[in-house]
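ARCHIVE CARD
CATEGORY: sequence design from structure
SOURCE FIELD: tokenized fold
FIELD CONTENT:
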């Protein structure tokens, strides 16, 4: 017969071991204070995921975004349908850098937050935790956009498979109150190489069939129901955006007209006529005027 003291010592050691195991095992995220903010960031803290309220949400509005009216109309329509509980799609916004992809999503949040829209920003490295995030918000009355900014993958990254399954490919149905909005400079989200063209096959009648490598690379982006493309701005569009930002910074019309040539030189030096470059010029120009 085993002495009672030995049994108690064994149980104590077992409990200690279980406590150590629990400390290293991943834990699902805990519910935050949903009233603290309309936007949240998902972060890993040790072995637990945390939804952190964003204390200072970007204040950009839809009316602030110029020269992307077509893209704006499509995303607003999709978001309106989502907030109203009607059919809506996951969205992939792709194209030239600095043309307003991320800003448009933030502006939609500000527009629809009073009607229950919430945003959860998730880094690419944390996409493997998407199922836990969706489970956490599935029973909430709000409508959630999971926001993945500047998304692209290298070969073999674990987040790629997790996002692919979440979009359309898991045996579990995604919650009706969750959509994924992602921005990327790559249409297919994965690097593409010239050698992959060798995997294409051609039939006698001229029909082209992509190889397995190419099919795999386009399979993720095809799971987004809505594609919205952004393009480099013309000189006239760039100048209109510069003027819009200068007005937002309180610059008068006479000074805006005088800034035209300088803003073009600024864009030439940066090698880009984008909304981001226009904003950066306007901030600098307005700051210099304030010193006069």
């Amino acid at each position: 017969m085993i002495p009672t003291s030995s049994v108690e010592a064994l149980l104590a050691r077992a409990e200690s071991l279980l406590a150590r195991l629990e400390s290293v095992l991943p834990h699902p995220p805990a519910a935050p204070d949903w009233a603290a903010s309309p936007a949240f960031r998902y972060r890993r803290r040790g072995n637990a995921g945390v939804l952190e309220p964003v204390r200072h949400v970007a204040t950009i509005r839809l009316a602030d975004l110029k020269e992307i009216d077509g893209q704006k109309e499509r995303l607003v329509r999709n978001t309106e349908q989502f907030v109203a509980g009607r059919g809506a799609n996951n969205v992939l916004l792709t194209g030239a850098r600095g043309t307003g992809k991320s800003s448009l999503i933030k502006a939609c949040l500000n527009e629809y937050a009073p009607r229950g829209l919430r945003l959860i920003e998730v880094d690419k490295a944390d996409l493997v935790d998407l199922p836990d995030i969706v489970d956490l918000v599935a029973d909430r009355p709000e409508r959630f956009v999971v926001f993945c900014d500047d998304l692209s993958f290298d070969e073999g990254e674990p987040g790629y498979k997790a996002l692919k399954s979440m979009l359309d490919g898991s045996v579990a149905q995604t919650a009706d109150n969750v959509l994924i909005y992602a921005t990327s400079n790559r249409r297919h989200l994965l690097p593409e190489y010239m050698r992959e063209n060798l995997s294409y096959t051609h039939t006698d009648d001229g029909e082209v069939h992509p190889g397995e490598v190419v099919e795999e690379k386009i399979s993720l982006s095809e799971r987004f129901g809505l594609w919205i493309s952004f393009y480099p701005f013309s000189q006239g569009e760039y100048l209109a955006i510069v003027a819009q930002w200068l007005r937002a910074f309180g610059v008068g019309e006479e000074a805006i007209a005088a800034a035209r040539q300088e803003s073009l030189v600024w864009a030439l030096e940066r090698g880009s006529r984008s909304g981001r470059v226009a904003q950066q010029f306007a901030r600098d120009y307005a700051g210099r005027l304030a010193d006069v």
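CARD ANNOTATION: The two ends are 93 Å apart (CA to CA). The first strand starts at residue 27 and ends at 30.
SHELF: design records, drawer C
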